[in-house]
Design brief:
2 domains; elongated
C-alpha cells in the first residue's frame, strides 16, 4: 500500500513538472524566434535581392556592406527591446523605421528607379509574411493553452 502511494506521489510530481515544462516552452512562442547567424542571413538576403532586383556584379559589391550594416543594426535594435515592456514597442518600431529609411538613402545612388521600387515592394512583402507567421504562431499558442 505504501508503495502505491509513493508511485501516486511520483506520478503527481511528474505531471506537475511536465505541465511546468510545457508552460515554459510555450510561454514565449509569439515573442521569440531563432535568428540564424549573420552571414547566413546576409547571403540569403543578397541572393534574394540579386534575383529580384536583377543586380549587376558591381551593385552586389556595393550593396553587400550596406545590407550587412543594416542587419547588424537591426539585430541590435531587436536585442535592445527583446525583454522590454509592451509600451516600448512603439519606440522600437520608430528605430527600425529610421534604420530602414537610412538604408534606403544609402541604396538610392546605387539602384535604378525600377530597382528601388522593387526593393520597396520586397520590403512590404516581407513585412506581410512576418505578420502572417506571427499570427500563426500566436494562434498555435492559443490552441495549446485551451
Amino acid at each position: 500500500m505504501s508503495r502505491f502511494r509513493a508511485t501516486e506521489k511520483n506520478m503527481s510530481l511528474f505531471l506537475f513538472l511536465a505541465g511546468l515544462v510545457l508552460i515554459l516552452l510555450t510561454s514565449n512562442a509569439c515573442a521569440t524566434t531563432t535568428i540564424p547567424p549573420l552571414e547566413k542571413r546576409l547571403n540569403k538576403l543578397m541572393e534574394r535581392l540579386t534575383t529580384r532586383l536583377m543586380l549587376t556584379e558591381q551593385q552586389v559589391k556595393l550593396i553587400r556592406p550596406i545590407m550587412r550594416d543594416y542587419l547588424i543594426k537591426r539585430n541590435g535594435i531587436l536585442k535592445k527591446y527583446r525583454d522590454k515592456e509592451r509600451e516600448l514597442v512603439f519606440e522600437m518600431r520608430i528605430e527600425l523605421k529610421n534604420l530602414e529609411l537610412e538604408t534606403e538613402k544609402r541604396l538610392e545612388p546605387i539602384l535604378t528607379v525600377f530597382q528601388m521600387k522593387e526593393y520597396k515592394k520586397l520590403k512590404i512583402e516581407q513585412r506581410e509574411k512576418i505578420r502572417q507567421r506571427r499570427k500563426k504562431e500566436c494562434f498555435k499558442k492559443e490552441e495549446i493553452q485551451l
